[in-house]
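Input chain follows. Return structure tokens only.
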Amino acid sequence: MNTLNRFLNGIEEVPAGITWYLADIAEAKGKQSLYTNQSPQKLKVLREHAIIESAVSSNRIEGVEIDRKRIGTVIFGNSLLKDRNEEEIQGYRDALELIHGDSNRIKLSESTIKKIHKMTKGQIWDAGKYKEKNSDIIERMPNGNAQLRFKTVSANNTQSAMKRLISYSNQLRKDNIIHPLIVSAATNLDFLCIHPFRDGNGRVSRLMLLVQLYSEGYEIGRYISLERLIEEHKERYYETLRISSQQWHENKHDPWPYINFLLYILKKAYNEFIERIEKIDTPRGAKTELVISTINRFKSEFTLSQLQGKCPDVSRDMIRKVLKDLRSEGKIESEGRGLGARWRKKGNNPK
């Protein structure tokens, strides 16, 4: 809440890079609005793909992974879950569906945050409850030693800190003191510094971000996975968080690196949305288009296994058929045979 409190007391000058991002995002948001009133089949493709990527990536950032062959079943199926990792990924999907389906009514509050945490943590004893013991962030060094990376708000002070976080965030939005996207990013930063739960704070922070964005009309997270983009830039994510959290307790921290990073992710998501939806041909089936849009995102060579890993709800036979059809159309080419074949878009030289 220290970042939000600083903004309430009079914000310092907003860096030029931040204002450029805000202008670019506003322009892209307008373009998205045009597309969302057209081609519902195209949007359905993107929504299904985004749910898979978001549930998998947000958990994978925290080290929670499952067999890729089970991803489609866990996210869209009703079969028995095999272990705790599958339970948490399915719980994240449930939280996404709650936020997507109730975006006009769901608001940022302590009860919303606790509910989201409970959904993502399943049956664990402290799901939906603030931490009962201090839980500082410890970094494990390559040599096996551990060092304190960040001292979080104590367990005794967590509830009061969260109340202030929600109050300050809502006040900034009400008074329109600062751009709502900056408020959302600052709220995200302060939440991670408070670290209110024993475990699962990172995943909750990403779901919180969606709640805040949707409440302000920025619904790009329905169609492009912000979690997947954050995972793809994980090193930068952790580095900007580290920089912006330094001296947070003393209120001498610099929040702008982390805020800048989240705005970068948002702009990238809007750009990808426009690029992908323009490439989707409506007459094709939804799963075929999902495979094609995934192929278009590969910057270099890829294998059948890599492609299937990014399209877990599409059968291998269908993926093979799409590859064969695209090769016949002269859009892609391959070297080798079988599972070891290396595919690439026509004109892309192998690296």
